[in-house]
Write a structure and sequence with these properties.
The chain is an alpha+beta fold. The protein has 18 helices and 10 strands. β8 and β9 form a beta hairpin.
Length: 385
């Protein structure tokens, strides 16, 4: 009777993965990631209204929940481009007058599509050798601890910014997994880390990071830009020109500045998607939003967060060219969160036309949250005159 050589097959899987654009691949077991559960439970308890729901912690630490017969997890890394000239990290008008900034991961083809397409090819290859295999593709949206599995599979380590850091590509990577009932030999974790470097911790505008490699999701700008509510005023000013996501903790990382970008990355990001004109985003319909952003990873939250962030960015940049659009939003948009953001931006800019629009808005507005924003903006404008 012939015994199947799983170690040899593992090497063939790795070779095939490389041929379809998977930059790193590692193998680990499907056991419970119990050491991560306490922190997930604490984060879930601490999360407020501004952060994104991370899902059920018990599901996230247990691959067997998703496939009870699983024996292995194949963890993969696909690097995404970061070497397009970008402004320096931090808030400010560096992206150009009247323009906002999209996070690098939100430019070009949605990474979910890129990663899933390559995992589907890998899945088909494995099935061509072992037809009876069970293989479940997981890409971000599913509830699984991707970074922890990647660390366990030897692909990198947890950076102090809480992201996976790989030796070859830094943290400029997307992750995806194949949970399977095949018994692949496991890889060993890497014995590396960030050493004494604290640049990401020191550079985070909202102090969302700490020495224990922990992230406060209710303070992280990346999550805040995706939220549905208006952030507190002191956080809005820290958002700068951010429209979707925040790359600050990655841009300041010394390891990231030394990494390369593989050819044929498959994302196809263009500079026009990096720094959109703010006023073009204010009045987008849902159809216009889908046409412009539907192919990107920014589409999943819909148009409202990006429009809200565009209004906040206009205020932070004191973009006087945006005032007519802000006035129109304040008087006619049906969404209180958008009208409130427009009122705040007009107060930040402080033009005479904006001051007049705030006064008119106060007389016609019936939403208490928007009225509060109008009154606060009037107070700021009055205090600076």
């Amino acid at each position: 009777m012939c015994v199947f050589d799983w170690a040899d097959f593992k090497e063939k899987v790795k070779q095939y993965a490389d041929s379809v654009g998977i930059n790193k691949i590692g193998f680990t077991d499907a056991q419970l990631l119990k050491e991560h559960l306490p922190r997930l439970l604490d984060r879930k308890e601490a999360c407020g209204r501004y952060s994104i729901n991370e899902g059920d912690p018990h599901k996230r630490v247990n691959p067997l929940f998703h496939m009870p017969e699983a024996k292995s997890v194949i963890s993969t890394v696909i690097a995404y481009p970061w070497q397009e000239p970008v402004p320096g990290p931090g808030p400010g008008p560096a992206s150009g007058p009247g323009r906002g900034r999209m996070s690098l991961i939100a430019r070009g083809t949605d990474y979910h599509v890129v990663v899933r397409t390559r995992l589907e090819k890998l899945r088909e290859y494995i099935l061509s050798i072992v037809p009876q295999a069970r293989l479940l593709i997981m890409v971000d949206k599913e509830e699984i601890l991707e970074k922890a599995l990647a660390v366990k599979a030897g692909l990198g380590w947890f950076g102090k910014n809480t992201l996976l850091v790989t030796p070859e590509y830094g943290s400029w990577v997307c992750l995806g997994e194949l949970v399977t009932d095949l018994p692949f030999p496991v890889d060993r974790p890497l014995a590396r880390g960030c050493g004494n470097c604290r640049k990401c911790i020191e550079s985070c505008p909202t102090k969302a990071l700490d020495e224990d490699i922990n992230l406060n999701p209710d303070r992280c700008l990346a999550g805040i830009t995706l939220g549905k509510f208006l952030p507190p005023p002191n956080v809005r000013t820290l958002m700068g020109d951010a429209l979707y996501g925040c790359d600050i903790c990655q841009l300041v990382c010394p390891l990231n500045s030394k990494t390369g970008v593989p050819g044929n990355c498959g994302f196809g990001a263009g500079s026009g998607e990096a720094y959109p004109v703010l006023s073009e985003l204010f009045g987008m319909t849902n159809a216009e939003f889908r046409k412009r952003f539907g192919h990107t990873s920014a589409a999943w939250r819909g148009r409202t967060p990006i429009q809200r962030n565009a209004l906040i960015a206009a205020g932070n940049l004191k973009d006087t060219s945006a005032v007519p659009g802000l006035i129109d939003i304040l008087s006619s948009d049906s969404r209180p969160v958008i009208r409130g953001a427009a009122a705040w931006a007009l107060g930040q800019i402080g033009s005479s036309a904006g001051v007049k629009a705030l006064q008119q808005g106060k007389m016609s507005e019936d939403d208490p949250t928007v009225l509060e924003e109008i009154e606060n903006s009037q107070g700021r404008v009055g205090s600076t005159e």
